[in-house]
Amino acid sequence: MSQVDTTNPAVEPVEAFTKLEQNGAALMPLRKAGLARFSESGYPTLRDEDWRFTNVKPIDELPFRPTIDPLGQGIGQDQLGNVTFGQLGADRLVFVDGHFNAALSQIGDQPSGVTVTHLTSGLAGFERELGSLSGGDDNPFVALNDAFFTDGALIRIGDNQCLAKPVHLLFVTTASGDGEAAHIRNWIVAGANTQGTIIESHLSLGQAATVTNVVTESRIGDGANIEHIKFQDQSNRAFHLASLHSELGRDAQYTFHSIALGARLSRNNLRMRLARPGIECVLNGLYMLRGQQLADHHMIVEHAAPHCDSHEYFNGILDDQSRGVFHGRILVQPGAQKTDAKQTNKNLLLSDDATANTKPQLEIYADDVKCTHGATIGEMDDDAIFYLRTRGLDPSTARRMLLHGFAGEIVERIRHDAVREELDALVWGRLEAVHKFD
What single-letter DSSP state applies at residue 402? Predict the structure, then answer.
């Protein structure tokens, strides 16, 4: 058993940590510090301001089973044949229950200076870099990830290089038992004047109450242009916790899209630091929920340099007893003059029992800025339906068009044509399949 002290009953000393101790001494300071932080804090509760609308007690009640050893490595290509983006021309890294699966992965030739691999194969020499961006985050799930992560993606794009093709990171849970938790760590470095598209998918092959806990750190260099698309469509019993920490360089362009359709509970923590002048950062998200699903997007965009733009657009479509949570904070530091920041959250309620909690915030310590924020929560617009009916459409078709347009506002911002088209068809098909328009 591990000798690490755990004073909080949320964490018991586990054999899993002993296995991790044996696997890599260089990571032990990070792992021990993470376990110590989580042992002290435990899981967040509704008393924590950042979590007051998102109750993670159902996770606390699950058995504590980090998937330190591979569980579902026997799955074959036939089980992944119809996955979203499965036919896309891309380098594909497949992880099953938090472990890299070489047989299912397809990695082609990339330019010299570009590395696309899994973390544990290329970790040597930069172990101390892990946690350099996420280390200041007091999120208990980041601490838990520090302690128990098994593997993840490693992407390095050298200065003045471009990805030859998109990189698709496919994370699959086999869901064989309640409480099985895959802790995933991704490290992305894009050098100066680089370009590329990164696609991240999270899917389930079973229906157990599993946990996915992913931490991604990314350094985006001067003049880089990176698009990161995340698609989460796990089972309605799964729990999905994710944190993205990015530091952006001078004149960088970084776009992150979050499409959240699955999981019983999903939480995306987005932390962007605009550290040099001339940056343009776009955070763009769509959550479509039904049943008792909950999706929470919690973001902080820190403007730490002048002449930077940030734009956040998040739309939610909520049915049945589902809930959408949005917390957006734009922080403009002293000296970050000429900031242009916009933040919008719109929620469409299709049921009297659906709920949206939204909290856009501006915190400004500079005086020459343009900052706006807004939020809406409402039902489908009767005036818009009436307008479409006066143009000859029946009520059902009018509602379809409005719903598709509402989701399309988000999807159409995806720059990669093939990804955008596939997601548009998937979102429209899902809306048609699960929502009544009459």
Answer: H
Tell me the C-alpha distance between 184 and 120, whole Å. Answer: 11
Q: Considering only CA atoms, which of 217, 267, 270 is closest in space to residue 238? A: 267
H/E stretch holding 91 reads: strand 91-96
400 HSE (CA, 13 A, CB side): 14
Residue 202 tokens, joined: 């999270």
141 touches 213 (CB < 8 A):
yes
Q: Which pair of tokens denotes residue 320?
A: 């049945």
Q: How far apart are CA 233 and CA 317, in angstroms?
A: 15
Predicted local distance difference test score (pLDDT) of residue 388:
52
Residues 6+ apart with CB under 8 A from 200: 169, 171, 186, 216, 228, 229, 230, 231
Q: Which regions of the chain are under pLDDT 50?
A: 1-13, 387, 437
Give φ, ψ of 306 to 5 degrees.
-75, 165
User: Alpha-carbon distance 375 to 353, whole Å?
Assistant: 19
pLDDT of residue 3: 39
Distance CA 204, CA 211 (A): 11
User: pTM (2 decimals)?
Assistant: 0.92
- Rounded to whole angstroms, the Cα distance separating 255 from 312 reads 10
pLDDT of res. 399:
74
The answer to whether the CB of 267 falls within 8 A of the CB of 239 is no
Q: What is the pLDDT of residues 153-204, one digit of tens each?
A: 999 999 999 999 999 999 999 977 899 999 999 999 999 999 999 999 999 9
Which residue has 């049943």 as its token pair? 291
Q: Which residues touch 90 (CB under 8 Å, ≥6 apart)? A: 165, 166, 167, 168, 199
Query: For residue 390, what are the contacts with CB-CB under 8 A and spacing of at least 6?
Result: none
